[in-house]
Amino acid sequence: MATGDDTPESGRRARGRPRGWHDRTEQNTIKSLDRAMEVLDRLSELPGVSLSALAADLDQSPATVYRVLTTLEGRGLVEFDAEAQLWHVGAQAFVIGARFLRRTSLVERARPILRNLMEATGETANLGVARGPAVLFVSQVETDASIRAFFPPGTLSPMHASGIGKALLARMDERRLARLLSTPLERFTEHTFCDADALRTELAATRARGWALDGEEKTLGMRCIAAPVFDMSGEAVAGVSVSGPVSRVSDGSIDRVAQEVCAAAAALTAAVGGVWPAPAGAGGRG
């Protein structure tokens, strides 16, 4: 019978893990598998690459990389374009990624809300979660407009230059926020917040009004308005946003779009059983 004490500290073996599961030394890793995952990970970042170029990029022999690629090809994780002589990430990689997304109801429940948000604003609606110092976009409903933002699922964007990222940073606990802001903040445009103190001031304003604005901070000519989504503990676990060109997301329309975005974030928070956090004092979670 399970006792609830299957932890390394208790000396009992955790179900689904062998004895010594927390040991990450060389004896408990499979070098060939680790090499294969390195190849797959790098290939997923490229639009298509030749064997020789990929091997050189990874500093591995072409023969080794070829064996990895043909093995992955057999599983559908990579594909080879014989005419162009280029390797690409395969459809099965997307299938596996989609299975990961099914671990949570967040993406599933967000779809109708994102669609309603897109229809209400006429702009592309996005859902993103934090992944280290970046935002990982996990779902999107595109507008039909000819000029539009495009963040396909799997896209990563730096938090400090992202609407969703700033919405999440504004609700982050001080220790984690300080750690993220201790590293240099990359500049993308003249509007990017690269100074930690200036970004903190921006995050305080974001927290106070309930939504974040990316005003051409990542891409000139594009704006993004975002709001946080909370879980049952009142922690910001995701963000909903609308992205579009400044010609449509104009100064005069920002408030209206922000209201729609906040309503969508509140609807998704309720859909996943989340609660809006109680106001906190200065320096705490707000």
Automatic annotation (TrEMBL):
Q: Where is the IclR-ED domain?
A: 92-274
- Keyword flag Transcription: yes
Q: Where is the HTH iclR-type domain?
A: 30-91
Keyword terms:
DNA-binding, Transcription, Transcription regulation
Region (Disordered), start-end ranges: 1-23
Gene3D superfamilies noted in UniProt:
3.30.450.40, Winged helix-like DNA-binding domain superfamily/Winged helix DNA-binding domain
Instruction: Note the SUPFAM superfamilies from the entry.
Output: GAF domain-like (SSF55781), Winged helix' DNA-binding domain (SSF46785)
Q: Does the keyword Iron apply?
A: no
Which residues lie in coiled coils? none
Q: GO BP, one example?
A: negative regulation of DNA-templated transcription
MF-aspect GO terms: DNA binding; DNA-binding transcription factor activity
- One Pfam family from the UniProt entry? HTH_IclR
Q: What is this protein called?
A: IclR family transcriptional regulator
